[in-house]
Amino acid sequence: MKITAKMVKELREITAAGMMDCKKALTEKEGNMEEAIDYLREKGMAKAAKKAGRIAAEGMIFDGISADSKTAVILEFNSETDFVTKNNEFIQFGKDLVTLALAKGIKTIEELKATEMNGETVETLLTNLIAKIGENMNLRRIKSVTTEGFVTPYNHMGGKLGVIIEMTGEATAENVEKAKGIAMHVAAMDPGYLCPEQVTTEDLKKEMAIAKVQLLEEGKPEKIIENILKGKERKFYEESCLVKQVYVRAENKETVEQFAGDITVKGFSRFKVGDGIEKKVEDFAAEVAAQVNG
User: Fold this and answer.
1) Cα–Cα distance between 294 and 286 in angstroms, integer?
2) How big, in percent rounded to 5, are the helix, strand and coil portions of the chain?
3) pTM, entire model
4) Is residue 32 part of a domain?
5) Which of 24, 106, 227, 257 satisfies CB 3.0 to 4.6 Å to 243 for a cystine?
6) Which of 168, 192, 209 is the last residue of a domain?
7) Element of type H or E holding 210
8) Contact criterion met (CB below 8 Å) for 197 and 240
9) Can you tell me the distance from the alpha carbon of 251 to that of 259, in angstroms, rounded to the nearest whole number?
10) How far apart are CA 88 and CA 94, in angstroms?
């Protein structure tokens, strides 16, 4: 199979490995992207790759919470350039949409676009705003979380990243402060799972298979590898599962679960502007092409 510059570029963006290493991995795995990612990880050339690893689009994350702290909404509103995110009309439109979503119980972008606001549908209002500002915009994704406990939103980096934390218990000042701290932790650490129970058998097997290849290449004896893998499995949970991670602001190495104390984290949502959208970079594409063809 012919390995193209586009394939090499995509693999590099996902893994941050060198271009020639990416080309070699794709060649070895006959163009299979998932197998090439695993190959690079086995060789120690890439960290754990996330499926939504490519970040490109500009825009802002907006969030809102109901008066009773039972429902929160998070919305990604994209634009072509960061300049537009400073526009007051862009910002107000994003805020109004979150307010609308909370009031109407909206859960999808399709619902949001079809809902009326000020006598017109949101989709029409968006089209009008695009025409007025002169730049393409997109309502990319929305998440609404309702709970029997309470929710706490957190907005980071001037709207570039947003988190909703769902907790058990009552929304007391102390509990909300704890939840905000955990939301900040999620923003910083980007956990892949809430708890070990959420890790699928397939995901765990894949991680352990990669770890085993690494251990064999390090020359570890086969008879002790299984014991080492038990430790690797525990470490994987500690690094990937929110409640098992060491709380970022802890002074005594307590986990998020321990920090939460009497209340429990029930779930989290994390939106970062542009997650998973490929950014067009002409010079880099040319650089990759030169490497591949050379």
Assistant:
1) 12
2) 50, 20, 30
3) 0.73
4) yes
5) 257
6) 168
7) helix 201-217
8) no
9) 11
10) 10
pLDDT of residue 115: 97
Among candidate residues 136, 135, 111, 115, the one with its CA nearest the CA of residue 124:
115
User: Residues 6 or more apart from 133 whose CB is under 8 A from it?
Assistant: 84, 87, 89, 90
Closest-CA residue to 19 (of 32, 36, 2): 36
CA 262, CA 168: separation in Å to the nearest integer?
A: 9
CA 51 to chain centre: 9
- In the structure encoding, which two tokens stand for residue 10, read together? 């995509």
Q: What is the pLDDT of residues 206-223, one digit of tens each?
A: 999 999 999 988 888 888
Structure-derived torsion over alpha carbons of residues 250, 254, 259, 265, reported in degrees to the nearest 10: 120
What residue type is assigned to position 48 of the chain?
Answer: A
CA angle 222, 224, 228 (to 5 degrees): 115
Residue 12's domain comprises 1-55+277-294
User: CATH no. for residue 124?
Assistant: 3.30.479.20
Name residue 93's amino acid. Answer: F
